[in-house]
Amino acid sequence: MRALATVALIVAGLLLASCATDERPDAAASPDVAPAVSLPPVDATPVTSVRIGPLTPRDADRITADDRAAIELLGTSAAGAPSDGGGHEHGAVVEAPLFTGDKATFANQWLAAQRAASRLDTIDEIEALGYVRSSAPIAGIGSHWVRWPRLAEPFDPAQPSMLLFDESRQPARLVGYSYWLQSPTEPDGFAGSNDHWHQHQGLCIVNGWADRERATGPDACAGTFLAGGDLWMLHAWPVAGYENTDGRFATFNPKLCPPIFGTPDVSRCPE
């Protein structure tokens, strides 16, 4: 009987301790503030069953409301995928000679692009203008910074919608431009026939970041799906010190390619 009584006392003591713990206010809380409601842990993962890349930002507030509206508007396009599949061209680009009016017009356009570099050559400057980092660094190209509302505006050599930066250097350096425009047909960009525009197919844009390319459709995209049939891109290299020996409109710039020796194949520039 004594043993049973001892057990009963122990159980009663545990129950009282439990009740006392539940009723005790938070010692760190102000006595004038009601106890906080218990919330489930915050999950930073977007509410989607579609995977996103390991580098894709999950913070939806990293872009402005105007950026998000511009991206979503691009996603409402009825354009399908590029007819030829799109994609970059590799190697040097041979430029055709320009004559008469085209030569003079191109010279003025290229000069405008060169002069614009002085107000676009630091990260602080371009962030103030509304550019946001939209990709990881790519060998031979650099990292992409996009001003999303510019995609729907006309071509302007001094107002590229995308800037290319070499962020392996400190401070990061502006190395080139990428004109990216929405147009039902290939844009009339620089005068002459040397600006060969290309397209990207099935882009998935998550919080202003190009999460991946060649997504099969909206159901395979954790953000806004851009089929790409009405989006055109042109790389240009007007920045002093990064003139491209492969051509002013070549996709890859040899000055931004890592050395072949000691660099894994996946990190090299395409040959």
What would you say this structure looks like, in words?
By secondary structure, the protein is of the alpha+beta class. The strands form 2 sheets. The chain has a 5-stranded antiparallel sheet, covered by helices on one side. It has 4 helices and 8 strands; from the N terminus they run ααααββββββββ. 21% of the residues lie in helices and 14% in strands. Mean pLDDT is 85; it is low at 1-47.
Largest sheet geometry: 5 strands, antiparallel
Strand and helix order: HHHHEEEEEEEE
Strand content: 5-15%
Strand order of the largest sheet: 1-2-3-4-8
Shape: globular
> Taking all residues together, what is the mean pLDDT?
85
Q: Residue share in helices?
A: 10-25%
Q: Give the termini distance in whole angstroms.
A: 89 Å
Keywords summarizing the entry:
single chain; 271 residues; alpha+beta; 5-stranded antiparallel β-sheet; 3-stranded antiparallel β-sheet; 4 helices; 8 strands; disordered N terminus
What would a concise description of this structure say?
This protein has 271 residues and is an alpha+beta fold. It has four helices and eight strands. It has a five-stranded antiparallel sheet, covered by helices on one side. A three-stranded antiparallel sheet has the order 6-5-7, with helices on one face.
Secondary-structure topology with pairs:
Blueprint: H1 2-23, H2 65-75, H3 100-116, H4 123-129, E1 132-133, E2 143-146, E3 162-166, E4 173-182, E5 203-206, E6 209-212, E7 224-226, E8 231-236
Antiparallel strand pairs: 1-2, 2-3, 3-4, 4-8, 5-6, 5-7
